[in-house]
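This follows on from our talk about sequence and fold. Please put the record directly below this note.
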Amino acid sequence: MQVRDGMTPLVLSIGPSHTLRAAARLMSQRGVGAAIVIDPDGHGPGIVTERDLLNAVGADQDPDRELVADHLTREVVLAAPGWSLEEAAVAMIQGGFRHLLVVERGEMTGILSLRDVVRCWTSDGAICPVPETVAVG
């Protein structure tokens, strides 16, 4: 399977001047773990994740005053839709992150999360059965 088979084409994007609370609210409403940060000054896309929000709150920073611009990752790894899911998983593991922006011909076409990769692999036929003791539902 390829990245295009697992990616989510609808990406939550926010601006760098959003507060952390506003970002958290939007992420929660959409049920996503990351938002793409589009900087109108042209510094390229960034990403803010639930981990970034957790780290800020854990450091006693005020989510109503702190801006996304001060908590985002600007060095984002880009994936091509034609990458294999294995290539994407390796990039995430080696980089220590859980989201890849998917770009084709210079345009953002989606986002791929580690959860998406697992979903694809398990629906494609997991290599081992899931024990009933851990199965949900």
